[in-house]
């Protein structure tokens, strides 16, 4: 039997991703943060002083994309970039005081977002979803 548009799991995942992005974008608007920039900030709030290469690897983004986001976050006054003495080719990203203060406001928003997204879903179901998404990801990466 031929699948209809709504029957493709990739379409369902894509539509869910669009809805998630739209929702978090509306929540981050007041903080002058785009969802992708927020991912960089979340990693820096977790561990300050990451290199652009480490961020690119953790977020599975190309280095140019990360450099562009870092530049924008620096212009907004949330981070500062510096070359470490031992490797002048690397660029380290550090939170500014404004960036640290922003975390105090945005992390609760991210936690609330996670609560909304996982409402009515058990821990076992979340683990199963993570397992299935990992399988899908591996299937795509293997091609």
UniProtKB/TrEMBL annotation:
Pfam families given in the database record: MarR (PF01047)
Top-rank lineage group of the source organism: Bacteria
Domain HTH marR-type residues, every copy: 1-138
Coiled-coil ranges from the UniProt annotation: none
Molecular functions (GO terms): DNA binding; DNA-binding transcription factor activity
PANTHER family tied to this protein: TRANSCRIPTIONAL REGULATOR, MARR (PTHR42756), TRANSCRIPTIONAL REPRESSOR OF EMRAB OPERON (PTHR42756:SF1)
SUPFAM superfamilies: Winged helix' DNA-binding domain (SSF46785)
Organism classification: Bacteria, Bacillati, Bacillota, Bacilli, Bacillales
Cited InterPro entries: HTH_MarR-typ, Tscrpt_reg_MarR-type_CS, WH-like_DNA-bd_sf, WH_DNA-bd_sf
Protein name as it appears in the record: MarR family transcriptional regulator
PROSITE patterns cross-referenced by the UniProt entry: HTH_MARR_1, HTH_MARR_2
Keywords from the UniProt entry: DNA-binding, Transcription, Transcription regulation
